[in-house]
Known about the structure:
The structure holds two protein chains of two kinds.
Chain A: H1 4-22, H2 29-54, H3 62-80, H4 83-107, H5 112-131, E1 139-140, E2 143-144, E3 158-159, E4 162-166, H6 169-192, H7 194-204, H8 206-211, H9 216-242, H10 252-265, H11 271-289, H12 295-309, H13 314-330, H14 334-340
Helix pairs in contact in A: 1-6, 2-6, 2-9, 2-10, 2-11, 3-4, 3-9, 4-9, 6-7, 6-9, 7-9, 10-11, 10-12
Chain B: H1 2-29, H2 36-52, H3 57-79, H4 88-110, E1 123-126, E2 129-132, H5 134-155, H6 157-167, H7 169-174, H8 179-205, H9 212-226, H10 230-251, H11 254-271
Antiparallel strand pairs in B: 1-2
Helix pairs in contact in B: 1-5, 1-8, 1-9, 1-10, 2-3, 2-4, 2-8, 2-9, 3-8, 5-6, 6-8, 9-10, 9-11, 10-11
Amino acid sequence: MANPAFALQAAAVxxxxxxxxxxxxxxxxxxxxxxxxxxxxxxxxxxxxxxxxYAGIFSxxxxxxxxxxxxxxxAAAINLGDSTVAIALGVLAPAAxxxxxxxxxxxxxxxxxxxxxxxxxxxxxxxxxxxxxxxPSYMVGKAMLGGYNGIPAIPPINMPGRPDxxxxxxxxxxxxxxxxxxxxxxxxxxxxxxLGRILVGMRENELRIELLGFDARFYxxxxxxxxxxxxxxxxVMYANWNAFIDPHVFSLAFSAQPIIWTMIGGLGTLIGxxxxxxxxxxxxxxxxxxxxxxxxxxxxxxxxxxxxxxxQGIVPTxxxxxxxxxxxxxxxxxxEAKRHG
Amino acid sequence: MAIAAIQxxxxxxxxxxxxxxxxxxxxxxxxxxFAHGELLMLGAYSAQFANASGINIWVAMFVxxxxxxxxxxxxxxxxxxxxxxxxxxxxxxxxxxxxxxITGAVTMTFGNITRGISTPLxxxxxxxxxxxxxxxxxxGVTIALFAAIYLVLKHTKAGLIARATMxxxxxxxxxxxxxxxxxTATFAIGAAVTGLAGAIMAPLTGVLPTMGAAxxxxxxxxxxxxxxxxxxxxxxxxxxxxxxxxxxxxMLTPEFGEVALLLGALLMLRLxxxxxxSLFPKRAI
Lengths: 341, 285
């Protein structure tokens, strides 16, 4: 592992971590809030980047897992008054949901189109279902689910066992940022591992992986559950960002977001979807403040054009452009040779 | 009891009606049209707009809506779907981008408010319970549409060419038929049927830019649980889920009706991954 590229990557991670810790001292309050939200979205984007880009499972449901994570955290934090168990539940609840859903879709060997449809339908139903929970009968202990009004005043993350020492906006920024970074590093390591290689192999050729003796159903389920847990962590950060969560996280427009970030940023990369999340969610916030052009119209148009014209997304396209130029510089005939070879 | 029977029949018919256009496009062309809900919505808007402009309600529903949405279908096929045949996942993504685009465009044009069409036909009464006679219209139109499309596909030359094109486009092209034109026509017909369905459902639900989302869950489940046989599969799935949905709705709430529908679908696909079609003879359509 002690090669120069690895050292460079490790250094980049350390620098990113230092930046995340130091930056809040220099940024304006609005910027801190905006970037904290982007960190939560980056975690969601990583979840899609992993399950779709590497395991080859197209799931509409990652926003739903994000929402379940946020709701689970909210309900647990309100009831327990301490965030430690609540964070764990925010990750485990969507993972458990994914185990059940994934068992049905993957062990039935449904085609990828059907998996896409089922995950979309689950998201739609969660939206409707959470929307009608305004009645007092929908209480989880002390927490009112509140229907379309959502859950307000969610307690923020606190020091384990010390509810009086809770995180303010600056600390949430650091926690969310380091979480996103940790998820990124963990996924990088996972993709280098045996499991990661099996997943990518499955994406490339499922039959071959099965003939080599791996149960594709099981590995799909594993990838699906890992991605759900990641999305749930994102949801926990989201619930902390504004101390609020409502059913719009299950809406079609919101479910669209991480898929658009991933598609446009670059499918099959981890950094592309993160960039996509930062740029596009900031952009849609800016566009949301004006009234002339509907945000769905722009997002839908951009997305459709990308599917038609740039299906690999930005990061792989840029990388290819650079490597082509590097090829051309080092070996003038390299491109020719490739074309003929 | 009679009322409950009519309600269940009505739920079945509504499910079949909103799913038929999707079933045609998916079954024939293997294109999962994620903009299906928006085609329903456009049908509803066309009928509402035409009716509000003074056109007779029946003309608005049965002529204007299918024509408008069929035309939009031609545009979608030519501009987007055409470039993505054979790439199922990409057609799904592109149509889904389109669904966001159409929702945005309609929101900008008509505003994010609910418009209504008054329900024609009045009401009937059985055993002291009143209900809308419009339910009979939905049941009748659904049966007529299924019968018409079945007859066209099975017993006309156009239907034969359509089925042959889906089976083997190269062979059909060698015999002098342009497969591209057949694809466009098939997509347009699927879209027109969807527009008609949206228009017919409009008086019951109101007309809203985001109304598509209320339909697509049910329509997708009905079609994928139906499986390969477009008509037999979709119709039998609509019957099955109509009973599940309406029974749960009567016993609990409409939200639980949808949850029950999804659970039923998951369980069914676990047992019959190829959908209800696998219970029918191989040549059924």
